Amino acid sequence: MSYLQLDAVAKHYGSRTVLRDVSIDLKAGEFVSLLGPSGCGKTTLLRIVAGFDQPDSGRVVLEGRDISGLAPAKRQMGMVFQAYSLFPNMTAQENVQFGLRVRRQDATTQQKRARELLELVGLGEHAQKYPHQLSGGQQQRVALARALAISPALLLLDEPLSALDAKVRVQLRDEIRRIQQETGVTTLFVTHDQEEALSISDRVVVMHDGVLAQVGEPAAIYGEPANIFVARFVGAVAELQGVVADGSAGMVTVLGRQVAANRARGMAAGTRVYFLLRPETVRLGPPDAAGMLHGTVIARTFYGALTSLKVEIVGGSDCVTAAMASGDAVNIAIGSTVSINWDPDSPRLLVA
Amino acid sequence: MSLRPTRPAGPLARSGGLFTLVFMAPFLLYVTAFLILPTLMLLATAFLGKHGPTLHYVAALGEGQTVVAFRNSIELSALAALVGLLVGGLAAYFVLRPGMPRGLRSLVTTFGAVAANFAGVPLAFAFIATLGSLGMITVWFKDIGVNLYGMGFTLYSMPGLVLVYAYFQVPLMIIVITPALEALRREWREAAENLGASTWDYWRHVGLPILLPSLLSAYILLFGNAFSAYATPYALTSGIVALVPVEISNVLSGNVMVSQQTGAALALGMIVVMVVVMGIYALIARRVGRWVKR
Predict the structure, then answer these.
(1) How far is it, in rounded angstroms, from Cα A161 to Cα A171?
(2) Which of B189, B194, B201, B205 to mutate to test the interface with A (most CBs of A within 10 A)?
(3) For every residue of chain B, which 3-state class applies, written as one string?
(4) In degrees, to the nearest 5, what angle opens at C-alpha B208 toward C-alphas B205 and B212?
């Protein structure tokens, strides 16, 4: 049985449809990310789960109980907001105690629990500091401790890392995952950052224009995008137009050349497809007749361990990007002609 | 070799200092000419008699009519400030609530800006014309069988003055408290609610404590505004209710007696009251605003 079930949830603001019959099931203890571009409806969905917004239709069911009409205060959910949600008039400890205080728990229990959680998020020594005395990352840790203090049935994270700088973001992301696994709390995490979603989640829900574009494990979302939106939104991808040449042999015609793609097997000849290549599956080499495609290196971007090379394909203006070890990439000069190869299992084909 | 960071030197720093001086000098000059010097002159006048230094005029502040005037002024100001604080604060809160018509806010703000500056004789006349013994509203009430003055109400009394003062105190409060109310973040309310807090819990533990420094400041402003009001009570009560500003006017340009020294002593007393009030404010503000970033 699902722990949290969102059943055909729909929401409109005036004539604008924000959510269209969205249905998701979460298992107990699962970490699920809602991933999508701005305006796709992911935050609205989270706010509906929290009870801050009401769905126009559909249900929110938690542990078999329909909570759609329940006030946020009665849902027993902990939420971490984007930023600046700590009460500025309270110390870190008082912030963490707040949920227990309004539940009229005794002072000793409140203090003990707050100390435990501040230790859990690594801020035991900052308990008496006010929010303005803490960095952005520390504030979000306190917000996380505060959300966990009430032993929530569900932890809701609304882009909690978006206001932090890159290094802190990665640290806190890993912290969140560690704490979630330690506490076992079922978590719904909203983000527009694909790397964040892929690295932290048990499952990812990709949203687009108020509907679910794909739901799956991170590797499946990345490696087996269900549609062209997911392929474009999650990770970098070279997108070429192709036509299945021979379904039995797994051959596709791309830019006038027949190239191997095992996923074409079983497809009818003549089927128009998007021929998708991830950068890490592209191999560049010296130009030779055996190369599947040929092209000219037009740009290089250094990322440290990896370097990406952008190659314009001969016979068209399409480009592919190859991600290579930086040590290998230095041997390929900009302007040089290269062969472009890949493992026949790598290309993902989507019917156009 | 010292590794301590040094202040930037050179033309930029020098020009920065020059700019500060250019902009601050007129202000400092203004404050000196119209605040510090007059205060010193008041101080000197209050302690100088015809035959040299004297405590006579300051000691007279403890006499019957003067004590009544100070008591009335403080009570009236405290009450008028409280009414302004409560009514204006609640009005601003309701105007800013989500879902209120957008035009309502600009309407209230515009009206507030005008009404907060509408005081003195015109305001007194407006109230006499509406709530005086023969005022329009008084007569209307009488026509439907409600005799306001028969029930003990009179505009020319302390309660009447509070009502009139509310006309400019409430809008002033709306203007000064609006930014503080707008600064209450939606996330604080939602976080509180999410953690199980009721509306009362939120206001008790979060909303009001955050607003408290602003409310205290607003109260001091309203108190000072009422405490120094002269034309409105003078035009309305013609001295029936003894108030310090009216007493100062009487001793400086009155028909019965003219005494600059008494006027100076009364003004000095007003300054002392405001200093005491601000001292109390500073003590409370420090306590309730421990969390404020300084």
Answers:
(1) 10
(2) B194
(3) CCCCCCCCCCHHHHHHHHHHHHHHHHHHHHHHHHHHHHHHHHHHHHCEECCEECCHHHHHHHCHHHHHHHHHHHHHHHHHHHHHHHHHHHHHHHHHCCCCCHHHHHHHHHHHHHHCCCCCHHHHHHHHHHHCCCCHHHHHHHHCCCCCCCCCCCCCCHHHHHHHHHHHHHHHHHHHHHHHHHCCCHHHHHHHHHCCCCHHHHHHHHHHHHHHHHHHHHHHHHHHHHHCCCHHHHHHHCCCCCCHHHHHHHHHHCCCCCCHHHHHHHHHHHHHHHHHHHHHHHHHHHHHCCCCCC
(4) 125
Mean pLDDT of chain B: 88
In this complex, is the C-beta atom of B286 within 8 Å of any C-beta atom belonging to chain A?
no
Written in H, E and C, the secondary structure of A267-292 is CCCCCEEEEEECHHHCEEECCCCCCC
What the block records as the tokens of B130 is 């509406």
Which tens digit of pLDDT belongs to each residue from B96-139?
A: 988 888 788 889 888 888 888 888 888 999 999 999 989 999 99
Backbone angles phi, psi at B228, to 5 degrees: -95, -5
pLDDT tens digits for range B14-29: 667 788 888 889 999 9
Element (H, E) at A311: strand A306-313
Quote the CA–CA distance of A313 and A185 in Å, as a whole number: 49
Please answer yes or no on whether A99 and B201 come within 8 Å at the CB atom. Answer: no
Question: Any chain A CB within 8 A of the CB of B210?
Answer: yes
Mean of the per-residue pLDDT values of chain A:
92
What is the side-by-side order of every strand in the sheet holding A257-260? A257-260, A251-254, A238-246, A272-277, A348-351
By three-state DSSP, how is residue A342 classified?
coil
- Give the gyration radius of chain A's Cα atoms: 24
Q: Which of residues 151-190 of B touch A (CB under 8 A)?
A: 185, 187-188, 190
**Helix (H), strand (E) at residue A118:** helix A107-120
ipTM surpassing 0.95: no
pLDDT of residue B2: 41
B210/A74 CB distance under 8 A: no
The helix (run of H) or strand (run of E) holding residue A301 is strand A293-302
The rounded distance, in Å, linking the Cα atoms of A330 and A300 is 10
pLDDT higher than 60, residue B3 = no
Please write the tens of the pLDDT for every residue from B37-87: 998 998 888 888 888 888 888 888 888 889 999 999 999 999 999 999 999
The pLDDT tens digits for A71-128 are 999 999 999 998 779 999 999 999 999 999 999 999 999 999 999 999 999 999 999 9
- For range B228-246, the mean pLDDT: 88
- Whether A43 contacts A158, CB under 8 Å: yes
- Of A24-33, A50-59, B61-70, B191-200, the range with the lowest mean pLDDT is B61-70
Strand partners, A311: A297, A320
pLDDT at B5: 46
Residues linked to residue A348 through DSSP beta bridges, in sequence order: A276
Spell out which residues of chain B touch residue A131, defining contact as CB-CB under 8 Å: 291
pLDDT at residue B9, as a whole number: 54
* Two structure tokens written together for A219: 């590797």
